[in-house]
Design brief:
The protein has ten helices and eleven strands. The protein is an alpha/beta fold. It has one domain: 3-Layer(aba) Sandwich (Rossmann fold), CATH 3.40.50. The longest helix has 15 residues.
């Protein structure tokens, strides 16, 4: 169902297996001979994270692509789930499958940022037929606890800003040292992606129960690893983007990923941490080439 439209994308509603109304942004041509691109955001993020990338890909003069960016349950425009236990990778992977079914897409290129990349590990086991190629944005089968703790602390400190300049200043204070490559406009776009406008005030656009799950994690215990799922990506084109200042994806994990996927394409995002903005150069140029060759 088309529920809204502007000049650059359509906002589409569809149903999850358990009856929630979920939303996605649909950019570009409906019919193309190229694989469509599915974009999966991070833990508390939403489809707006991919707006600039989707505009570039969907309006490419040579090979315009259809780009679909998802709001998971509890994020963005999608319904909040009354059963908070459903905010987990398995349920969210099934929601991605529901989105593919709704859009009538039986194969595509998937870009997963952070949690979106973890979902792609599960998707590669559950429905490998859906995946033509994968881009993992600053994520792998092993997560560094120090980086996850930093995300926990950032979310815990996230008081509601009183206005948009304060929101931008808060993001700079939290993330500035990890993102020296960003200019003022980039920070403003980041704020617009993370927060929604409620009567002129920015409000974090996710169910607080999602952040609460992270607060309850026992970091004294080893974090689960997904190597048994990663091997299902080994036979397909795969690119990993690692932020130069990432504290979530380690060089050791990246080496393990290369050992299991000899044709793995690795790209470092200069001047960026977790997770890199994908529309900035030189990242976008490499994504465009990877997508074209997949």
């Amino acid at each position: 169902m088309d529920t809204a439209r502007d000049d650059s994308f359509r906002t589409i509603a569809y149903r999850s297996d358990d009856g929630l109304t979920l939303f996605a942004r649909d950019y570009g041509p409906q019919i193309t001979h190229q694989w469509p691109i599915f974009c999966l955001p991070g833990l508390t993020r939403n489809s707006r994270d991919f707006h600039q990338l989707a505009l570039l890909m969907s309006t490419d003069p040579a090979t315009p692509r259809r780009v679909i960016a998802l709001d998971y349950r509890g994020r963005g425009c999608s319904d909040r789930d009354a059963n908070k236990a459903n905010y987990n990778l398995g349920v969210e992977t099934r929601d991605v499958i529901s989105a593919c079914q709704h859009f009538g897409i039986d194969r595509g290129i998937f870009i997963g940022t952070s949690r979106g990349g973890l979902i792609l590990h599960l998707l590669a086991e559950m429905r490998p037929d859906l995946i033509a190629a994968t881009i993992l944005n600053d994520i792998g089968p092993k997560i560094e606890a120090s980086g996850l703790k930093r995300i926990r602390d950032y979310l815990d400190a996230g008081a509601t800003p009183s206005d948009w300049p304060e929101a931008v200043a808060f993001l700079k204070a939290c993330h500035g040292r990890y993102f020296p490559a960003l200019d003022e406009h980039d920070w403003q776009e980041m704020a617009a992606a993370i927060y929604r406008d409620v009567d002129g005030r920015p409000v974090a656009d996710f169910d607080p129960a999602i952040a609460a799950q992270l607060q309850m994690m026992d970091f004294e215990q080893p974090l689960p690893e997904l190597w048994q799922y990663y091997i299902h990506l080994a036979g397909k084109p795969l690119m990993v983007i690692k932020g130069e200042y990432s504290d979530l994806l380690s060089d050791d994990t990246l080496a393990g990923m290369k050992a299991r996927h000899p044709r793995l394409s690795v790209l470092e995002a200069p001047g960026q941490g977790h997770a890199p903005l994908l529309h900035l150069e030189p990242i976008f140029r490499h994504i465009r080439r990877f997508v074209t060759e997949a």
